[in-house]
Amino acid sequence: MLSPFSRSTGGLLPMDRRSAALLVVVGIVLAGGLALAVGRRHQAKPTPTPPPREAKATPPVRPPAVEAGLLPWRLAAPVSREIVLPRRGAGRGLVVLGGLRSGDSSTNAVDVLDTRTGALSPHGSLLEATHDAAGTTLGTHLLVVGGGTAAPAGSTQIQTGERTGAGGALPQARADASAVTIGRTAYVVGGYDGPTLDRQVLATTDGRRYRAVAALPVPVRYPALAALGSRIYVFGGLDANGRPSGAVQLVDPAGRTARVVGRLPRPLEGAAAGVLGGTIYLSGGRTAVGPTKAVYAFQPRGTSFLRAGSLRVAVAYAGAAVSNGRLWIVGGESSGRQPIAAVQMVVPNVGFGRAGDPGAGSPFAGDKLLIADRGSDRLLLLDDRDKVVWRYPSPGRAAPHGGFYFPDDAFFIRHGTAIVSNQEDNHTIVEIAYPSGRITFQYGHPRSPGTAAGYLNTPDDTYVLANGQMSVADAGNCRVLIIDPRTKSVVHQIGTPGRCAHDPPAALGSPNGDTPLANGNLLVSEINGSWIDELTPSGRKVWAAHLAIGYPSDPQQLGPDRYLVADYEHPGGIVEFDRRGRILYRYQPTSGSGLLDHPSLVERLPSGVFMVNDDYNDRMVAIDPSTRALVWQYGADGHAGTAPGLLNTPDGFDLLAPGGTTPTHPTTG
């Protein structure tokens, strides 16, 4: 292998050559003046000039936090220490060159990776199998520098289209380096020749002739590189003692200088860096104790690092490239130093907070998430750091008469001062004061289903409407009820017990959702026949759509004629549709980390991602609708429990924002 210290190589980190330097503008306000005292008979005397006001600096705007996600597909085979570059010209995707496969074998494969599907298409081959090589784009060419198999190589390769030719020889053999392009010049930084680390920063404009333009004060292997303007930042790497380096070095090719300008939060090697929106984001890498998930936003002014989020999988020595505004992290090595097949992406998203915020990287940054953990008979409230900050029942918050059993849904009401929850198999509705936990309303008879006044049968989705009345999908009775909580009387009934077919308002086919709309109507889902209806509170049908899905659950409105519903199946799905029942979007992986098992509620969060309670997988997840990446998770796949970080068949959720607003259900009471 190439390393005398470890079997690790620096992942290629090409940067966006159009990146601009991040500037912080400080305004200085100076005030002063001359005042004249005017008298009838006396000459005016100038007053002393007041001292200037103290200058007030404008606080710099912190960069966005990141949405970091795990793609729902995997590579055909695990790979690490490969080169990944954005594909130029026609088509989308990434080019993957060489790398290390399972069994410590290098490959000469060149493939195009479709980032929408995960499909790999052959795109020629390298002249020699290699891993640990540096790579970057150079005009229309792809440049592969050094690397090797059993020993570092001094050769370079140039790929044009699907053809690979030989480039020029390096001054000496070099592996474990990284490369970046600025304008029309490619730079090779870091690496070693086997016995020693190489300080020289090389530059080339054609891939055939190389010249030294600077020397690193701290020679390293496996550094992460990013270019801002005409300068190159070098993050960490493995030092001469075989330990991760904490140095941040700045290379100025024009001035032919390189110097240490800062320190990393933790010494790091084999990380991935990319310029996104003018900010350098540093992701993953290996610390002294192993791979990390940490993502930092780097601010050159003051050389500070702000925590911006977390990867889904801790990884080092991955191929990485910026394409379509995202940093793609392909393969790499997680625990055990074995190649993995996972692909991750990082994209700035201010909906996930600002870098440096306590909850930076959360899809509900700044808010709290209420979870109806049905299998554990409890409600949990998480802050944006995934910490449980409130639970019910708990000491001092007693369960209601008849117990708190099978909470199917829970929603904040009354400006965040109370929670309404339906207990499906307990056949009851309760209103719980928040945060005291005092029961202020109860309807139904515990463990006693029925159709008579005051009885329910498997109630689902209880909401408090804008007028203070309550709606509930009384699924087992095939009806939707509008209840006056003051008198506990039914104001309206839509459907008829015992008639469980689609014929509103006379009959409904086992309704399990009755979401309030902004116009005062209800969006009702019927399990039997897979129907979605908009009904007035009195039951008049506005429209109805038949969906080609298995089990519609808890529909939501996204726009004027765009709706969202969960498909409560295995594999489960997220479906967008219109009033004619046309499917506009479908997310339904059949394998991998994104596979859903009976999801019962999905909503689009203000951050733009879908939050889903993935019931039978015992987890809550957030999905990016554009990349279909898993960008957040609470709970362990298929591992039910009550310990911190675990859930048991979560079946409902809601958001609480500061000030008591409910971003996902703003039209409820």
Protein described:
It is a single chain. This protein has 669 residues and is mainly β. It has no helices and 51 strands. Strands 2, 3, 4, 5 and 6 form a five-stranded antiparallel beta sheet that branches. The radius of gyration is 30 Å and the shape is elongated. The relative contact order is 0.10.
How much is the average pLDDT?
91
Instruction: List low-pLDDT spans.
Output: 1-49, 51-55
Distance between the termini: 65 Å
* Proportion of residues in β-strands: 35-45%
Radius of gyration: 30 Å
Summed up, the helix count is: 0
Please outline the major beta sheet: 5 strands, antiparallel
Let me know the number of strands. 51
Overall helicity: under 10%
Summarize the model shown.
This protein has 669 residues and is mainly beta. The chain is built from no helices and 51 strands. The N terminus is likely disordered.
